[in-house]
Sequence to fold (257 residues):
Amino acid sequence: MTSKIFLLIVSIIIIGHSIGLAQKAPRFHVIALYENGGHHVEYTKAARPWLDKLAADSNFTIDYIQNTDLIDSAFLSKYHLFIQLDYPPYAWKDKAVKAFEDYITKGRGGWIGFHHATLLGEFDGYPMWNWFSGFMGDIVYKNYIPTFARGKVNIEDPYHPVMKGVPSSFMVEKEEWYTYNKSPRPNVHVIASVDESSYTPDSDIKMGDHPVIWTNPNVKARNLYIFMGHSPVLFESEVYKTIFRNAIFWAACGRKS
Fold:
């Protein structure tokens, strides 16, 4: 074998190895803040393996934390997407609050919040996070259906990327629908709402206008709030999983820096 042929073979091997490494590089990085106890532990137990499989199949990474102790600007800079997986907007460390507000307002990454993320008010001796209330449409938590109810969700913006492949309406089999002091509609872009007349069993705990999926266009970060997120049965719904999957790829691709 001549030296030229040998060098050519070596070059091909190196180039092939480099291409292989490039192909294996993760598309983006996700951090998920979740509750590992209380009423939402079963939802988390269903969400984590589904998220892990999606990450493996779709070539992105996902890390998990159970509190806000590690969160600061340097920590968040590693992630393209922050998933608030059933974690309330109170009892956060001060440095985490500041870093998160900066992350959202400056578009340093995307955000998806579920269910408990709108438990806005004074709870467990903690004051309300006023910035987060504004982020969610200037709302305050008011009440919920503790006995759960089946409900029909209607899509209001079928052209939003998160609604790709989603029917015009779908049923949520079991949810503890929250109510707020007012509808967030004037301050956010509503993507879907629940038809309160469809509640089974019926309930007197209603809002009238009741958005359940929305985004706030007044911040730079791509963001989406999905109210449904209490019961693990949600992961038996192909529609719910489609919305969740679409939300991840949409929100993760909006990083500004």
In short: Helices lie at 3-24, 41-58, 73-76, 94-105, 130-135, 238-252. The radius of gyration is 21 Å.
